[in-house]
Amino acid sequence: MQPLAERLRPQTLDQYIGQQHLVGPKGIIRRMIDSGKISSFILWGPPGVGKTTLARIIANTTKSAFFTLSAVTSGVKDVREIIERAQRESGGMFSQGRPILFIDEIHRFSKSQQDSLLGAVENGTVTLIGATTENPSFEVIRPLLSRAQVYTLKPLLESDLKILLDRAIKEDEVLSRAKIRIEETDALFRYAGGDARKLLNILDLLEQSAGVGEEIIISDQTVTDRLQENPQAYDKNGEMHYDIISAFIKSIRGSDPDAAVYWLARMIAGGEDPEFIARRMVILASEDIGLANPNAMLIANTTFDVIQKIGMPEGRIPLSECAIYLAQSPKSNSAYLAIDAALAEVERSGNLPVPLHLRNAPTSLMKQLGYGKNYLYAHDFPGNFVRQQFRPDAIAGMTFWHPCSNPAEDVMVQRHVARWGKKD
Fold first, then answer.
1. How many CA atoms lie within 13 A of 75 on its CB side?
2. For the chain, first and last CA: distance in Å?
3. The pLDDT of residue 281
4. What is the pLDDT of residue 90?
5. Measured between alpha carbons, how far is 357 from 385 in angstroms, rounded to an integer?
6. What distance in Å separates the CA atoms of residue 268 and residue 315, rounded to the nearest whole number?
7. For residue 322, what are the contacts with CB-CB under 8 A and spacing of at least 6?
8. Which residues of 280-303 are buried (b: 16+ CB within 10 A; e: fewer)?
9. Cβ atoms within 10 A of the Cβ of 266, count?
10. At a CB cut-off of 8 Å and minimum separation 6, what does 167 contact?
11. Is the pTM of this model over 0.70?
12. DSSP character for 215?
């Protein structure tokens, strides 16, 4: 028999629980379904909040052909085969809407795999619905993000979980025939952590562990005993995964090593992937420490390498060492702000021409056209420096890097002023 979570999977929006900001009377996805015009989008949220279910409901309601891919097991070849099938089946006898391609864990797709989707999404061969537990801004390529809206799904509220519990007991073919007594639900909802699938899996476990004809008692004690685990708040696949890593990063950014180590311990005790923790510290080292202490990036990257080599539990020591070092380090986000400012200018001004004296001149024709002419080779001058223009004329006076005040960048500013004059 199918698991309870599969038996109770909603088939219509009326059966769907939660996410009222998207599927309620004024929700954007509700309006799309009602109009029959489905745009490509990505559903971002923790596990068990209805991402896959919502995609299936959309396909069923709009009578669209539905294709699925898992980013864990699929490659570029699989993507192309699905797109070809969608092209053949588009407009079929029983299909009314544009074919829907649902990709679970789309954040795991490589750049080349994501690139292979662009044409089909752009020309309307398929409507893409992606699902991800990771921030799409970091994990999905920009061209694909520009073709798909991102909608955030939230953990289910306790009121949602109560509705789900009541529906499971009343409507499921197994539980509706069982003797069930509800005494307490605090532990049940705490362990579920806003995850519908987890709640139903716990109910499944309680039912399967009861003897034939035995009453199923739902109480804090029975739930805890059956799960045989310490009821701690951390859930590496749920909401607390995001909250605690956020607290960890903010503690390091705020230069509190004791808080950083505490949140690190919470993650380690909760079974968090140590490579995930190390990877986030590499990002922090460049984003929040940056030029104030370039060694921070080396320490963080070395920590990531060490974790891959030695694993856990020994890996907790270099993780702690790195967290304390980063927390105590001077901070600067000037490099982070500089590249974002430069990207904004590129978006605004487009492909400005490279000045002729900076262009490469590998052929005689290019030399005749002035490529590379009047370029000054820095090493031919005292101090290995000579003033010349390195930017397009249109942005010749524009500044992107605004240094922060710290010993390392103060030295950089002095060096810059000696070469170029005043640095704001």
1. 1
2. 69
3. 95
4. 64
5. 16
6. 10
7. 278, 281, 299, 300, 303
8. bbbebbbbbbbbbbeebbebbbeb
9. 18
10. 8, 17
11. no
12. P
CB atoms under 10 Å from CB of 34, counted, come to: 11
Residues for the chain: how many in total?
424
Task: Return the pLDDT at 350.
Answer: 85
> What SS3 state is found at 218?
strand
d(CA 407, CA 402): 15
pLDDT tens profile 246-292: 889 999 999 999 999 999 998 888 778 899 899 999 999 999 999 99
Q: Which residue has 């004329």 as its token pair?
A: 393
Q: For all residues of the chain together, what is the average pLDDT?
A: 86
- The distance from CA 293 to its chain's CA centroid, rounded to whole angstroms, is 27
**Single-letter code of the amino acid located at 395:** I
Q: Using omega within 30 degrees of 0 as the cis cutoff, is the peptide bond preceding 313 cis?
A: yes
Tally the C-alpha atoms within 13 A of residue 62's C-alpha that lie toward its C-beta: 26
- Residue 323: pLDDT band with limits 50, 70, 90: very high
Give pLDDT, residue 237. 52
Report the pLDDT value the prediction gives residue 232, as an integer from 0 to 100: 44
Residue 231 has pLDDT above 70, yes or no: no
Q: Is residue 299's pLDDT more than 50?
A: yes
For residue 233, pLDDT over 50 is answered with no
Residue 131: closest CA among 56, 41, 192: 41
Look at residues 282, 288, 248, 250 and name the one whose alpha carbon lies nearest to residue 267.
248
Residue 93: predicted pLDDT: 41
Pairing of strands 100-104, 66-70: parallel
Q: State CA 271 to chain mean position distance.
A: 19
DSSP 325-362: HHHHS----HHHHHHHHHHHHHHHH-SPPPPGGGS---
Token pair for 383: 């101090």
Question: What distance separates the 2 farthest-apart alpha carbons in the chain?
Answer: 93
Tokens of 207: 């039912």
Q: Are 181 and 215 in contact (CB under 8 A)?
A: yes
Tell the residue number behind the tokens 């995850």, with chain if given. Answer: 195
- As a dihedral over the C-alpha atoms of residue 348, residue 354, residue 360, residue 365, rounded to 10 degrees, the angle is 120
The whole-angstrom separation of Cα 410 and Cα 416 is: 10
Summarize the confidence of residues 137-153 as an average pLDDT.
87
Give the chain's count of helices (H) and strands (E). 20, 7
How many Å apart are CA 338 and CA 359, to the nearest integer?
24
Query: Given pLDDT bands bounded at 50, 70 and 90, which one contains residue 241?
Result: low
Question: What does residue 306 show for φ and ψ, rounded to 5 degrees?
Answer: -65, -45
